[in-house]
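Hi R.,

As promised on Friday, here is the backbone we talked about, encoded as C-alpha cells. Could you run it through your design pipeline when you get a chance and send me back a sequence?
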C-alpha cells in the first residue's frame, strides 16, 4: 500500500471529486431543460461546448504539469467548476450559461486526470507496489463515489431545487482542494528509463491505446443511453428497474477494482485489459439476449467487473507508455472518455431509432470488440524511437 501520508489525502480528494461529479452529472441536462428553459438543441450545444472546453483544458494543464510538476493545475481544475456552479444559481440567460460552461465548468473535466497525475507522481516516489496497488485503490473509491453521488444529488434536488444542488456541488468541488493542500510539496517526477529520441511525437503504441480506450468508452456511454430505453421500452420494466441495474453495476465495480491490487507485479497488464474489453463486448451480447430481471442483474455483474478492470488498470497502463509525460498521458486517457461522450449520444440515438434497441446494443458490442483488437495490435507495434509525448 502507498505511503500513508500521501495516500490518505489522495483518497479523500478522489472521493470528494467523484461525489461532486456524480452529484451533478445526471442533472445538468435537466437543469438546462427545466430550470433554464432551453430547447433540446440548445442543451446539446451547451453540453458539447463544455466537453470541448474540457478537452482543451485537460490537454493544456497536462502539458503544464509535465513542464513543472505542482498542485496548481489540479487546484485550477477544482476551483473553476466550484465558481461555475455557484454562477449557475444567478442566471439562466443562454449566452451567460455558455460563458460559464466554456470558461469554468469545462475546467472541471480536467480535475480527474490532474488528481490521478498527482497520485502517480507521489506513488512513484513511494516505490515498491505503490503504483500497482494505489491506483486501483483510488479507482475503487471513484466507483464508490459514483454509487453514492447521484442519490445525494437527488436528495439535494428534492430538498431545495437546483439552487441547493448547485451550491452543494460547488462546495464538494471546493472540498477536493483541502486534502490536496495536505499533500505537501509535489516531488519531481522520476526521469524515464530511456530519454525521448523522437522529437516529442506521439508513439504509435500510445496512439493505438488511445484509440482503443476511446472505442471502449464510446461503447460504455452509448450503452448507458440504450440500456434504459431497452429495459423500459422493449422489456416493459419499470424506471426503478433501470436504477437497480446501474446500482448493481456500481456496487460490483468497487470490490472488482480492489481485486486488481492483488495481481502479481509481473502480470500481463495489457492482456488483462484486453480480457476486460472482451468481457464488456460479451456483456452487450448477453443483455440483448436477456428478457427477465434476474438475467439482466447477472449481466450487470459482468459489466461491473469489465469497467473496474479497464478503469483501474487502464490509467496506469497509458501512463507507463510514456513515463516522462505523466500529466499529458493521464489527460489523454481522460480525454478518451470525453471524446466518447461527444460521440456516444448521437450514435446511440441514431442507431436505436434506425435499427432498434437490440441492434444498438450489438453495435456497442462491436465497438468494444474493436477496442480489443486495437489494444491487442498495439502489442506487436514497435515505436521508431523511445516513447514520448508532445511537449
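Update: got your reply. Pasting your designed sequence below so it's all in one thread:
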Amino acid at each position: 500500500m502507498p505511503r500513508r501520508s500521501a495516500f490518505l489525502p489522495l483518497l479523500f480528494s478522489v472521493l470528494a471529486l467523484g461525489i461532486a461529479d456524480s452529484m451533478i452529472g445526471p442533472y445538468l441536462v435537466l437543469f438546462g431543460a427545466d430550470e433554464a428553459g432551453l430547447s433540446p438543441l440548445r442543451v446539446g450545444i451547451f453540453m458539447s461546448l463544455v466537453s470541448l472546453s474540457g478537452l482543451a483544458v485537460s490537454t493544456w494543464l497536462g502539458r503544464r504539469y509535465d513542464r513543472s510538476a505542482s498542485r496548481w493545475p489540479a487546484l485550477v481544475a477544482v476551483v473553476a467548476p466550484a465558481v461555475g456552479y455557484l454562477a449557475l444559481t444567478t442566471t439562466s440567460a443562454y449566452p451567460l450559461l455558455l460563458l460559464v460552461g466554456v470558461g469554468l465548468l469545462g475546467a472541471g473535466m480536467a480535475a480527474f486526470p490532474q488528481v490521478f497525475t498527482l497520485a502517480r507522481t507521489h506513488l512513484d516516489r513511494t516505490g515498491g507496489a505503490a503504483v500497482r496497488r494505489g491506483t486501483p485503490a483510488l479507482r475503487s473509491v471513484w466507483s464508490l463515489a459514483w454509487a453514492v453521488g447521484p442519490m445525494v444529488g437527488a436528495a439535494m434536488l428534492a430538498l431545495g431545487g437546483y439552487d441547493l444542488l448547485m451550491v452543494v456541488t460547488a462546495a464538494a468541488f471546493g472540498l477536493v482542494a483541502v486534502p490536496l493542500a495536505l499533500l505537501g510539496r509535489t516531488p519531481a517526477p522520476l526521469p524515464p528509463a530511456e530519454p525521448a529520441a523522437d522529437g516529442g511525437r506521439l508513439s504509435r503504441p500510445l496512439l493505438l491505446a488511445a484509440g482503443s480506450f476511446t472505442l471502449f468508452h464510446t461503447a460504455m456511454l452509448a450503452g448507458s443511453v440504450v440500456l434504459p430505453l431497452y429495459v423500459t421500452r422493449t422489456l416493459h420494466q419499470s424506471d426503478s428497474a433501470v436504477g437497480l441495474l446501474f446500482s448493481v453495476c456500481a456496487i460490483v465495480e468497487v470490490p472488482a477494482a480492489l481485486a486488481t491490487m492483488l495481481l502479481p507485479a509481473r502480470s500481463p497488464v495489457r492482456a488483462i485489459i484486453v480480457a476486460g474489453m472482451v468481457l464488456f463486448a460479451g456483456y452487450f451480447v448477453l443483455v440483448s439476449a436477456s428478457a427477465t430481471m434476474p438475467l439482466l442483474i447477472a449481466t450487470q455483474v459482468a459489466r461491473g467487473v469489465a469497467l473496474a478492470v479497464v478503469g483501474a488498470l487502464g490509467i496506469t497502463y497509458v501512463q507507463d507508455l510514456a513515463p516522462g509525460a505523466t500529466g499529458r498521458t493521464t489527460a489523454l486517457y481522460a480525454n478518451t472518455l470525453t471524446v466518447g461522450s461527444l460521440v456516444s449520444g448521437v450514435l446511440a440515438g441514431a442507431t436505436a431509432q434506425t435499427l432498434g434497441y437490440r441492434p444498438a446494443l450489438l453495435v456497442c458490442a462491436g465497438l468494444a470488440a474493436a477496442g480489443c483488437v486495437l489494444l491487442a495490435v498495439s502489442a506487436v507495434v514497435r515505436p521508431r524511437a523511445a516513447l514520448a509525448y508532445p511537449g
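One thing I noticed while checking it: The chain is about 80% helix and 0% strand.

Thanks again,
M.
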